[in-house]
Amino acid sequence: MLNELIRLSNITVGLLMILLSITLKNGSIKMNHWYGFRISKSFESDELGYKINEYGAKRFMMWSIPLFIVVIISFVILFDNNFWLILFFSFFPMIVK
Fold it and tell me: Degrees (nearest 5) of the Cα angle 31, 27, 38?
C-alpha cells in the first residue's frame, strides 16, 4: 500500500508540473498575477514575461523527468519498513521542485 501511495504522489506531481507548464511554454496565458512565473522582471513587458514563462516552463518539464525515474525505481524497490527510503521517496517531489 505504501509503495502505491508514493508512486501515485510522484506521478501526480510530475504530470501536474507538465500540464501546468504546457500553457506557459506555448504562450497561451496572458500576463497575470496568479499563474506563471511571477518575478518583477516578467511584468516589465509582455514579451519579456512570455519569455520568462517559457523558460520556467521548460525547466519544470525537465524536472518532471527525475520524478518519473523515481516512480520507475519505486516499482523495483520495496520500501517495507525502511524509514529512510520511505522518507526520501515521499518527499522527493518537494526536493525536486
Answer: 40
Give 37-83 pLDDT, tens digit per residue. Answer: 888 888 888 899 899 999 999 988 888 888 788 778 777 777 677 77
pLDDT tens for each residue of 73-93 = 777 777 677 778 777 777 776
Type of residue at 63: W
Q: Which amino acid is located at 81 in the chain?
A: N
Q: What sections of 27-82 are H helices per DSSP?
A: 46-76
Left if phi > 0, otherwise alpha if psi is -120 to 50, otherwise beta: which for 78? beta
Region label for 45, one of left (φ > 0), alpha (ψ between -120 and 50) or beta (otherwise): beta
Q: Are 97 and 66 in contact (CB under 8 A)?
A: no
